[in-house]
Amino acid sequence: MPIVSQRHPHILKPKNSAGRDLKSAITVGVTLGIIALAAIYSGPTGWYPLVAVAMAIATWEVHRRLKERGYVISLLILIAGGQLMIWSSLFFSVTGLIAGYVTSVLILMFGRLFHHGRHSPPQNYLRDVSIGVFVFTWIPLFGGFAAMLSLFSREDIPGSLFIITFMLCVVASDVGGYIAGVLFGSHPMAPAVSPKKSWEGFAGSVILGAVTGTLCVTFLLDDAPWLGAAMGVFLVVCATLGDLVESQFKRELGIKDMSRMLPGHGGIMDRLDGMLPAAMATWLILSFVSV
């Protein structure tokens, strides 16, 4: 049960620490939201460059952390391959994205093989190539699906509304989980991976995500409320699992944040950890279900 304030019995006292500078986090969050909205309403001409820049920065953050722990991967190959994947999807849709992914993986495999020249045998080759393929999948591949959401349209509904629906559901998941976790969190969801993530927080994410999905799909996409609720819950699950993946990644590297680029948030990748898998899930839903 949540703790009740002694002086003000009607006010709930948080059971857990907020764990971040809320003032800075809100300011940065609002700023990022304004930038994203401007790009979204510009269509692919605004959304694609924003996604491409975000994926490049996120890749740089991850590469820097991996390099600190002794991994040997070419930053140039990671960033160039990621950009190839994203921009190929603009002209050739998912075919271009997958072709760019396969090409990038091949270059990574061959480049790492001769990283120290023809006369020096590669060390930790399987380890480094494997983490490189993981980075390609985790960041630019999922990011390519986020970029392609701007290409969706249905009758008089532009792609911008599909992106807004996806982003609002993920933000709702984050906000709902954060509030419920701070106020009520007491049962760890995956203590070995992320001790602070609780089942109470997950319940808050599901509730707010389902409500947000229902409202967005009903009023923005003009479709059935039940489909919106199902979509909201599905995106919450994907966002939560994405957050756990990043938590394990950081735990193995012994770090708290990917960088300090965003006060109150950490790095770009710390903000994208849930959005990237949720973007891929959104693309799948929009591709195979009439939303």
List the helices and strands and how they pair.
Blueprint (H helix, E strand, L loop, with lengths): L2 E2 L7 E2 L8 H19 L3 H25 L6 H39 L11 H24 L10 H26 L3 E3 L3 E5 H21 L5 H29 L14 H5 L2 H14 L3
Antiparallel strand pairs: 1-2, 3-4
Helix pairs in contact: 1-2, 2-3, 2-4, 3-4, 4-9, 5-6, 5-7, 6-7, 7-9
Structural account:
The protein is mainly α and 291 residues long. The protein is globular and about 60 Å long.
**Mean pLDDT metric:** 88
SSE-based structural type: mainly alpha
Write out the strand line-up for the largest beta sheet, numbering strands in chain order.
1-2
Our Rg estimate from Cα atoms comes to 20 Å
Proportion of residues in extended strands? under 5%
Terminal residue distance: 39 Å
For this entry, give a set of tags.
two-stranded antiparallel ribbon; 69% helix; 4 strands; disordered N terminus; mainly alpha; 291 residues
